[in-house]
Design brief:
The protein has 233 residues and is of the alpha/beta class. It contains eight helices and eight strands, in the order E-H-E-H-E-H-E-E-H-E-H-E-H-H-E-H. The longest helix has 23 residues.
């Protein structure tokens, strides 16, 4: 399990404790936190709660995509070998059956699987409630429907799992602002299908205000434009 974190001291302890409480044999997984350019107590709190912490500092290669790429390189050089990698954001919480559900998919030969993207704060504001409704509809009408039809699903930025042999084969290389979309495009070009797990739930924190939403959407639009320039020319 890899959790990417940048100055997340308020929430990092919650997800590390959550992941260490999974309904899954403890000896079969490890929890890593990438403390990326942190200036707070993120790394210290993550260690206190039982995570393996790697601190990264770079003024030029900034962002989640670069942090994950850096961590994958460390992971592949370790003596311990892993069958798959799960990716989460620091503000997530995860259903306790998550690893069991993903293990079932891996046993079926599914190499890349996205978990159900739910919301931590659907009743906090009109904005977070609207986001929640959108995600619930997307989960049911887009992701699950495509999975049943045998079509490619989409990576949603968090709560997905990738077999390590796929990462070693094609590399990560997803470093734009929408690293999830970029990696989805790389997989599509290689003919690798993304599967869907409707029972492995990830609870993500949604924006509370219109200003927060605009900043997030603006970043996503910039990332999508970047992906279009990289992959559709």
């Amino acid at each position: 399990v890899i959790i990417a974190a940048h100055n997340e001291e308020k929430v990092i302890g919650n997800i590390v404790r959550n992941m260490n409480s999974m309904d899954y044999p403890k000896e079969f997984y490890d929890v890593f936190v990438v403390a990326d350019n942190c200036s707070d107590k993120t790394a210290h709190i993550a260690r206190q709660n039982g995570a393996h912490v790697y601190e990264r500092f770079s003024m030029t290669r900034r962002g989640k995509g670069f942090a994950l790429e850096w961590m994958f390189e460390k992971l592949f050089k370790m003596d311990e070998k892993y069958d798959a990698v799960c990716i989460f954001d620091a503000d997530n919480l995860v259903s306790l059956n998550y690893l069991k559900e993903m293990n079932m998919h891996l046993c079926r030969g599914h190499k890349v699987v996205q978990g159900y993207l739910d919301c931590k704060n659907p009743t906090d504001s009109l904005i977070s409630g609207s986001y929640s409704i959108t995600y619930w509809l997307n989960n049911r009408l887009f992701q699950l429907a495509r999975y049943y039809l045998g079509l490619n699903c989409a990576i949603g930025g968090t709560g997905f799992i990738v077999a390590t042999d796929i990462l070693e084969e094609i590399g990560w290389g997803a470093t734009c602002l929408t690293e999830d979309l970029e990696f989805s495009l790389k997989l599509a070009l290689k003919g690798i299908r993304i599967y869907w797990s409707h029972q492995a739930k990830v609870y993500d924190e949604k924006p509370l205000t219109l200003v927060q939403s605009w900043r997030q959407r603006k970043r996503w639009m910039q990332g999508q434009a970047d992906c279009a320039c990289r992959y559709f020319t």
